[in-house]
Every structure is written in structure tokens, then in C-alpha cells.
Amino acid sequence: MKRLPEIKTMTNSVQLKFAATFLVLIAVLAVFMNTYPTIAARDLVFSSKKASLQNQAGVMASALSAPEELTSDTVPAVMDQLDLRSLTRVIVTDEDARILYDNAQYDPGIGRYAMFSEIARALSGEIVCYSDYDGRAFMTREAMPIRSGGTTVGAVYLYEYDETQAQLISSIQNRLRSVSLIVSAAAIILMFIFSRALTKRITELAKATRIVSEGDYDHRIPVAGHDELSELGTEFNSLTARLKETEELRRRFVSDASHELKTPLASIRLLSDSIVNSEDMDAETMRDFVNDIESEAERLQRTTEKLLSLSRIDSGASLTRERVDLRKVAEKTLRLLHPLAKENRVTIATELQKDCFVWGNEDLLYRVIFNLAENAVKYNMPGGTVDILLKSEEDEVILTVEDTGIGIPDEDLPHIFTRFYRVDKARSTDAGGSGLGLSIAHDAVKLHGGDIAVEKCAEGGTRFVVRLPACPEASEEGGTEA
Ligand SMILES: Nc1ncnc2c1ncn2[C@@H]1O[C@H](COP(=O)(O)OP(=O)(O)OP(=O)(O)O)[C@@H](O)[C@H]1O
Ligand SMILES: [Mg+2]
């Protein structure tokens, strides 16, 4: 037998997969939370810094573009009137990059040449602006040409070193780090609790499946809540209940069947023993005994044939299907039943419509009609009647078998399609019945996609109504199917 994997290992691996997926998800979220907001804030500061420095440089360049010549005397006079407090360094040069103004406190470079590439680029007419962030401060540089009468007469260079904004960003970063650590830790703890609870329930289901598969059909899963797993538990319980029912039916069937076969076999044995053991048995008695043996053997044969029919229906073994004319099948059945009807003094009246075709197995359909008609004759009274009606209605073929017989008591009606069920055991056995005819009819009708119903007639008899899907046209389908 194939070895099944241990339930514990199975659920552990489910838990592991679940935990791994969740951890990856948390890691991705934590990385995102720690990077994206800082990058966005930094970009925002960059653009605001650039705009503000460009604005200030623009004001300075336009203030210095007066027609006067730029000298180390005129420039400071203009610069003193401007607000330069937020700037770390401000340099103004003439067109040769010679420094005319420098606000550096230690060693201002007035008179020297400014060697900054930004100033060189500004003198060639470009506006240069860029901002850097090194984790401790924002460093922004701006260089702009000073124009007068269409020519570049000098350049303004601004530099800002801002630690305040940088501190703000790093404090946001630190807070985000702590928040994401707390959230991740809480999520991981919750995930473990949740996944343990989930796998515990899956383990319970897996264990229950194993217990039931080992034959304990009474085992049930305690169901609480309304989620998918609870639904699965409810489905499992009802499946197990159905399995139990089927198993009980199977057991009862086997025991009933063996009992049914045992009785005639025991009679045959008894009768043959009597013949063998009696030395002076007269010919007349012996003939009677042999006749009895023959009728018991016949009963045995009938029962085994019925059991075989049932097992064919049950196993769904491939049955040949064809377009069957039910009228012909009914006529054949009635010819066979004629002697029994005559013997029981029962009249059979028929009304069989033409064109009642069904797609199915002729032998099984014959058994349906025969069992119903035979019962109607068998469980009738001398002088009684049996009406057999066959008609086609829309997409159905309807067969009605009605009798004026002894009727079926209300309490027995729900059980008569059960295998081996007999209303009056003594009477039925006298009539040669085994209680299988109606269950064969029922199962065969269901196999053909039809329906069978029973009801009491007003006159005290019984009416069986069979509905089968009609097959009006010669169907192309063919061959064998279950
Ligand atoms: N038309 C009927 N009128 C009265 N009772 C019926 C009728 N048909 C069936 N029954 C009752 O239902 C029981 C079951 O019928 P079913 O045909 O399954 O078995 P059976 O006739 O006893 O045996 P079998 O058909 O296997 O030879 C019968 O024993 C009989 O008591
Ligand atoms: Mg019968």
C-alpha cells in the first residue's frame, strides 16, 4: 500500500510556506517604508532649495547689472543692501573671474581669481545650480552671470550649507525605522499565531480524513464559525454521514442477499436429503419432492438474475444503449405476463401510444415495465384490472401502471424502492417475490435520467408513474456507455 505522508510534516510544510511568503512580504514593505518617504522628502527639499537660491541669485544679478562698472567698491555697496543671512557663502566676480566681493569670515578671497568651475560656466553665460545631500547637510550651489547691455560683466556664486532640513529628514527616517520595526514585529507575531491556528484546523481535518478512511464512519469534526474551513468541516461531516449510510446499505444488502440465497438452498438440501435417506419412497412422493426442488431452483435463479441486474446498474458497467421503442417492449412484456394474469383472473387493459422512443438499454427498460406490471397482477384480486398507459408528452415519455389490487399502506410507501423491502413478507414470498423488483425498476429509471413515483389510487389500488426523457429523432449517439 502507498505510504501516506505524516500529517504533522504535511502541515508543517504548509506553515513554512505560509510564513516564508509572509516574511518576504513584510521585508519588502519595511524596505519600501524606509526608503521611499525619505527619497521623496529629499527631492522636495532639493527642488525648494534650488528655486530659492535661483531666486536670490537672480535678485543679486539684476541689482548688480546697473550700468556702473563692477569694482571692489561698488559691489559691496550694493551687496550690503541685500539680505544674505541664509547663505553660507556669496561671491561676486568680474568678467575675468576676479573676486570683487566675498562674505567669507576667514580669509575672504577679494582680488584673487575664483577657481570654481561653476563661476567659469556662469561667465560663459550658463546658469548653474545643483544640490547635494551627504546625510548630515544639504549643500546647494548656484552660479549666475551678471549681464549689462547684453554682455556678461561678472558672475554671482551662492553656496548654502543647511543642517536643519537634513536633521529633520534624518529624524523622520529614524522614526520610520522604529515604526516599521514595531509594525514588522507585531505582524510577525500575529502571523505566527494566525498560521498556527490555521494549520491546527487543517491538521484536524487531515486527521479526521485519515480516521474515516480507516473505517471509523462515526468520527465527526467539531465545527465552529462561518469561514471556508468551517464550511469544509461541515461538508466533510455530511460526506462521512453519507459514507456511513452507503456502508450500512452495502452491509445490509450483502446480508439480505445471502439470506435470500440461503433459504432456497436449504430447502433444496433438505428435500434432496429426504430422497437420498428414504429407502422406500413411492414414485408419487418422489415426483412431488423433485417438483419442489425445481421450483426452489427456479426461485434461486430468479433471485440471482435480479442481483446480477442490480450489480450491473450499480457498477455502471458499460451498457449498450440504443433507440428503444417502449411500445414494443410493453407489448412483449404483456405477452409474457398473459398466463399469470389468466391464472390470477386479472384483466390487463392497455393504451399504448405510438412514437414513444427512449435512448437507453432495452433489457433494463423491459425490466422496468415487467416488474411494475408483474406486481400489478401479483398483488391484485381475482376479477381485478390492470391499466397500462404509455404516452409521449413534450420531451418525456410517460408510463403509468395502475391496478385495483390490495394497495400499499401509507407507512410502507416511502420504503418500497428499497432493496429486499416487502410489505407483507409472507404474501410476497408466496408470490415468489424477493423484494428486488421495484428497486431494479427505480435504479434503472434513474440510470436513464428519469423519475419514478408511486401513489394510492382512489379505488384502493396503486399507481406507478415513470417519466423518461424522450428520444424522438434517430440519434447519432451510439456505442456503449455507462
Ligand atoms: N402494485 C402493488 N400493489 C400492492 N403492493 C405492491 C405493489 N407493488 C409492490 N408492492 C409491494 O411492494 C413490495 C416490493 O415490491 P417488489 O417488486 O420490489 O418485490 P416483490 O414483488 O416482493 O419481489 P420481486 O419483484 O423481486 O419478485 C412487494 O413485496 C409488495 O408487498
Ligand atoms: Mg415485484
Any key phrases for this structure?
single chain; 482 residues; alpha+beta; Beta-Lactamase; Helix Hairpins; Heat Shock Protein 90; 3 domains; five-stranded antiparallel beta sheet; five-stranded mixed beta sheet; 10 helices; 53% helix; 18% strand; rod-shaped; disordered C terminus; binds adenosine-5'-triphosphate; binds magnesium ion
Task: Break the fold down into its secondary structure elements and pairings.
Layout: H1 7-63, H2 74-79, E1 89-94, E2 99-102, H3 117-123, E3 128-133, E4 138-148, E5 151-162, H4 164-213, H5 228-277, H6 283-315, E6 319-320, E7 322-325, H7 326-344, E8 347-352, E9 357-360, H8 362-378, E10 385-393, E11 396-403, H9 425-430, H10 437-447, E12 451-456, E13 462-469, E14 480-481
Summarize, please.
It contains ten helices and 14 strands.
Commentary on this structure:
The chain is an alpha+beta fold. It folds into three domains: 1-214, Beta-Lactamase (2-Layer Sandwich); 244-311, Orthogonal Bundle (Helix Hairpins), CATH 1.10.287; 319-481, Heat Shock Protein 90. Helix content is 53%, strand content 18%. Strands 2-1-5-4-3 form a five-stranded antiparallel β-sheet, with helices on both faces. The chain has a five-stranded mixed β-sheet with strand order 8-10-11-13-12, with helices on one face. Strands 6-14 form a two-stranded antiparallel ribbon. β1 and β2 form a beta hairpin. α5 (228-277) packs antiparallel against α6, α6 (283-315) packs parallel to α10 and α8 packs antiparallel against α10. The two termini are 29 Å apart. Magnesium ion binds at residues 371, 374-375, 433, 437. Adenosine-5'-triphosphate binds at residues 306, 371, 375-376, 379, 403, 405-408, 416, 421-424, 428, 433-439, 462.
